[in-house]
Amino acid sequence: MSEIIPPFHWHLFLTEPWSAWYLDTTLRVIAMAFCVSASCGLVGVYLILRRLALVGDAISHSVLPGIVLAALVAHTLTGPAIIIGAIVAGFVTTVLIESIDHHSRVKTDAAIGIVFSALFALGVVMVTMFAGDLHIDADCVLFGNLAEVATQPGMPPALIQAGSVLLATILLIGFFFKDLLVSAFDPTLARSLGIRARWIHYGLMAWLSVTVVSAFEAVGSIIVVAMLIIPGATALLLTDRLWKALVLTVIHAAASTVIGYHVGLWLDSNLPAAMVVAGLGLFVIAWLFSPSQGLLPRAIGRQRLRDRLEREKVEARETTEKAESR
Amino acid sequence: MKATNREGWKRRAVALCVVMASISFGLSGCGKKGDGAGETPHEGKPRIVATSTMLTDLVKALAGDDAEVAGLMAPGVDPHTYEMPARAIAQIRGSDAVFYNGFLLEGKMADVLEPMAAQGKAVVAVAEALPRDQVIQPENFEGHADPHVWGDVQLWKQTVPTVREALQHLMPEKADAIAARADAYSTELDALDAWIRERIALVPEANRLLVTSHDAFTYFGRAYGFEVIGVQGISTAADAGIADIVNTVDLVKSRGVKAIFVESSVSRATIERIAKDAGVVIGGELYSDSCGPAGQMETAAGETYDKGTYIGMMKHNVNAMVEALK
User: ipTM of this model?
Assistant: First the structure.
């Protein structure tokens, strides 16, 4: 067992990463991962509420051909070209899914399955074709290069981009809070209020593509799915209020980033994957112990109810017996 | 109701423009270079990082107790396919000087190290500083030089001045001590070179054919009169093809080779298969791209040495060859 799990040195994995010579690297990696995880998580809350989690999965894969094309044109994985490429690819995905759904007997889930895997495959083919001209390879597509991306000399472009996207996500949610809220919970009410549900939908899909792309270089296109869904899912287990869920999502992103960073250093594993595993741990804790929906509080509540019913039954029987004996 | 809503949209549309402007402002910062690599100055001894175990051993021998020398690669790790963990990135960024072999021995690491060198960090590729006329340019390595320079002790000795100068530049006040240690180490390497020639003389010239997993012994062969056959080519990144294996089996049979060798940092499977198909024995395990486990002593040919050092590694290899081929 000791060979599978490396020994845990308190100093090496908890103290040292925060010491002077290590601190800059630690802060950059954590900042990068937090920006990615928080902006994905915030968008993910709306995906979960609108039951679009699978579409999030789809778009995170199908932006790959857009990324490759933009990278071939602009020779970089950050900046406007990538953002535009991602929005176009995300839009194509959404439209393709809808048109297959509407104009054939193929159902929505199958349509999603066809579109995202095929576009992802196209992207993989393009990556291998143009490998010489690109700074991405198949490994990077799958897992990302978090530590290397975050520690590029100077101010890493990927970090600036992820930070800007997080800031913009927060601002967009702030401006369109009511529209997003109403169209997520009550589409009929949204229509009667004059909110254009289709615009909100396409806007959300476009922004989903942007967040996914800004995460791509750091965490790859598989891990990003977990970062879209797990923070929001955890937050929505803990509260029924949307704004509280958004705040909890950001807290979850921060906690899983910091915990996952240390776990990843200890186990010498891929850092984004360790962060997702840490996030899953937090989800399980929320699932078990959430005051309103947790398995344990609910089991305790049921037991209490059963006890009370039992007690009342006994009391009632005693009263009748007393009344009869009298 | 409708009018106020339209106004709300207008207001938010303006706000959205502000958001987008702020993002593009953030992205425009991408092109600019920041303030250097962001190292934190620290008290005490300089921190030095070296990549391969052979190089770490050399740098430690020259730096003595005057610096903290950390080796990135553990014994038995294959440098060609080495993936930097996050801790290695922090160690490199937090160090005062980095020594690496170069000539693509460390695979993708050069992509990380070269930008740092461009930013003014002390990053030294010891093999790349060797005189070009002594470096082997293989035909099938896309114009790159063969990085396995430590196989020839006299050539490896020529990296000592490079390391010495870099260390003296880093610690001018310790220049004399470093020079004294460099001279002592060079003398040890001269003795090693003479010892190897003496031992090799025990192998009949007809038997001086070395078959190993990959082309790690070309310099060794050139210096000590061995013909070398590596099944896998210069880098271990690509696996051996069927044709490579069949050709090697034919060659081993036709030349009547007594024994072939596995390497500690490369999978044994290919060599084991060739040994079986050609009906020869495996002559032992050679340390090709990595020293042995640190502090592991071995007694052979009437002396005891530490296989975790460069000198011990060379002695182990030569003893194994002499035993199997004489």
Answer: 0.70
Interface of B with A in 1-40 (CB under 8 A): 1-2, 5-6, 12, 15-16, 19-20, 22-24, 26-27, 29-40
Which of A99, A84, A92, A11 lies closest to A59, judged by CA?
A: A92
In whole angstroms, give the CA distance from residue A229 to residue A221. 13
| Mean pLDDT, each 10-residue run in order, chain A (326 residues) | 66 81 89 95 94 88 87 79 85 88 88 90 85 68 82 82 92 89 83 80 89 88 92 94 95 96 88 94 94 88 92 91 84
- Give the helix ranges, DSSP H, for chain B: 2-28, 53-63, 86-93, 109-118, 153-157, 159-170, 175-200, 218-224, 242-255, 269-278, 310-325
Q: Are residues B239 and B173 in the same domain?
A: no
Report chain B's mean pLDDT, rounded to a whole number: 85
φ/ψ bin of A79: left (φ > 0), alpha (ψ from -120 to 50), beta (otherwise): left
B142/B222 same-domain check: no
Name the residue range of residue B299's domain.
203-325
User: Quick check: B1 pLDDT over 60?
Assistant: no
Give the pLDDT of residue A227: 94
Rounded to the nearest angstrom, the minimum Cα separation between A261 and chain B is 9
Q: What span, in angstroms and rounded, lies between the C-alpha atoms of B102 and B87? A: 21
pLDDT at res. A77: 74
Binning pLDDT at 50, 70 and 90, where does residue B231 land? confident
Please tell me the distance from the alpha carbon of residue B193 to that of residue B225, in angstroms, as a whole number: 13
If asked whether residues B213 and B303 sit together in one domain, one would say yes
Sign of the four-CA dihedral A280, A282, A285, A290: negative
**CATH class, range A10-293:** mainly alpha
Residues in contact with B316: Cβ distance below 8 Å, sequence separation at least 6, in sequence order: B286, B287, B292, B298, B300, B305, B307
DSSP bridge partners of B259:
B281
Share of residues in chain B with pLDDT > 90 (%): 44
CB-based contact B30 A78, cutoff 8 Å: yes
Q: Quote the tokens at residue B71.
A: 């080796």
Is B209 a domain residue?
A: yes
The reply to whether residue A172 touches residue B30, judged by beta carbons under 8 angstroms, is no
